[in-house]
Design brief:
By secondary structure, the protein is an alpha/beta fold. Helices cover 33% and strands 16% of the residues. It starts with 8 loop residues before the first strand and ends with a helix.
Amino acid sequence: MTWIRKCTIPTKNSHALENANYSGFASEALNFLLPLHGRVNLGVYHSNPDQYSKRYHEELPPEERAIMDEYVDSYFTSFGGTSITHGSPDAIRSMPRDSEFRVARTMFETDRIAPSWVELFKRVDEVWVPSQFNVDTFSRSGVALDKLKIVPGAVDPVLFDPRMVKPLGLENKASYNFLSIFEWQERKAWNVLLGAYLREFTCNDDVCLWLRSSKASHIMTKLKGGESLPEQIESYGRELGLNISRLPRIEILSDPLPLLEMPSLYKAMDCLVGISRGEGWGRPQHEAMMMGLPVIATNWSGNTEFMTNNTAYLLDHELTETANLEPAQAHYQGHLWAEPFEEHLRQLMREVFANPKAARLTGQRARAHVKKHFSREAVAELVINRLQAIEAKLTGTKPIIAPQPIETEKAEGKFVVAWEGSFLDYGSLSHVNRSITTELREQPGIDLACIQKTAGMTPEMPNALADFTQNMASEASTETQVTVRHSWPPIWEKPSHGKWVNIQPWEFGVLPAEWVREMENLDEAWVPSSYVRDCYIDSGVPADKVQVIPNGIDEKIFRPDAPALPIKTDKRYKFLFVGGTIGRKGPDILLNTYLETFTADDDVCLVIKDFGGKTFYAGKTLAEVIEQAQAQPNAPEIVYIDDDLPPEQVAGLYTACDCLVHPYRGEGFGLPVLEAMASGTPVVASDIPVLREVGDTCATYADPQDPISFRNVIQEALSNPRPTRSQLQKNATRYSWDDNVQKIIDKVNALS
């Protein structure tokens, strides 16, 4: 836990929780605050309590609602520290005057801000805006550039996970469904959207445009001229000279949706059309991309912070002076904004309609991009870093974590990296090496060479691994800047070029003295957990050399809907063990407990997936002991699998079974625990520090030295309610390869 001294954050947010609809600053505030829970001394203040929406509050997930209640209750006005407003700059007027450091977090949609706002910003120490677009527009308007810091918008990658939700049940869906979410006002370019859609498609196209507008939350809402929204749309079609009887379908979502149903709405759609004349951020576009939905959006303003031509369909435009403003938008008068090109929008809508497979691939790239850079957790790290820098400024100390930009890639050239170790078998070490290097190879700032340094190749290499050899190198380049070595047994020969990093897990307390001596030549030692880091430091390795780089999981493979692997059993409940069956991993603990607890009459089966019997564990596994246990009279059913399985089939093991039992006596990380959780499978694990670190509160723990403890926990697993899949998955996603590879890139950058 990171604790920032004196950093209380009262959020002055006039819009945070006042609207029944899930929109605007409300979601921004939630996604900004919730990832900070437990990490900062936090209080929340609503500046317009008379407008507070009880309905909206009650529709929040229970755990989030409880946190927000706690923060509101803990707010106090005489605190000092850091005060942050979240909302319109007007909230600055009511900021606590005794704050030591004052931050305004806001945004705007056009090419400038009002002079009165510039004056207000003189009262604060920093202005946090979500994008480079706002850095440019605010500074051009007169706000001091050194005050402006980018703190982007955030979205929950667990809630907005397309694999975890079902489509919203909607009647009259077409084969292809566009969605647009906006407030019915000029800035949102509704006329460009309707013009493009009504002109491009006809009633002969099996397509539908679904409109969800905050000013159309009731179908009978009257707009200009006394027309209802459907009437106004029809009138607009006539203005365009179109045959009303030939218009394509449009459906209006009239009922407000609570937060928890928004992912289901996105899941029911094929494409989000999120065009506008200007955005401070673009929350619906952000959420849709996190859901893996292809998005069409204007190539201007705040949304370009998280969109690229590779992750979205960006719409051409020209800058024009604002016009046709509603009275509430008079502050836009005389500004410039984007006028989207209707013809280009027609082309883009036709393109995604005609090529849905390519559009879905764009959506997949979009999810990977926003999840990596703009998830709640990613943005929380930026906020924590910034707050620590502020605290250092107030106290005259160095920050605990130095502030970092979002993008850490080197602009010029590439870093030359050699990754040495095992790659060509299905053991966990090779799995980790392949996972990391596959991600690294996609990074534009890395020139990577994978070098097989240890034996361990399976006698008949599967095609999937054979394909990997195409990316292998025989030796490191003379231009190598950083060599990363991850092998077993460890190789202590110093590389001939560049910096040297060793990744060396350890499972039992004090390191061998020889290792400690050899590590004197290392530039850095990377370890997978805080537990291993403590082992290194306690053994005499300098603390500044030891960096924690956790292992990760591939969420595309290990997921609750992964196809179950067929298992030859008719038993209802299946326990699972995954790992090399050597003494350290405790298969004997599990076998003895299982044989003493159950008989052949019980409706249970123990599935044991052995790893490494054909590599460095050859001749050391308990295969013979397991086979003897299977043959015992009246023994409960055991299925033993020692075949090499690709990751996709291992994922199928988790989804085919009901509970992973992980009785390890010692471990450096505990990858099967995360893989099981990501697959939605509950976990029973040894109560040792490293597994507590990885499993957190989502696993059930037993003492590996106490057979009765394990017996009780295993018996309870049969009847206890399962943790929710979202709980398990949320814990597992703390260790995604995307995040961990970014940490590796940061470390490589620093070393180079």
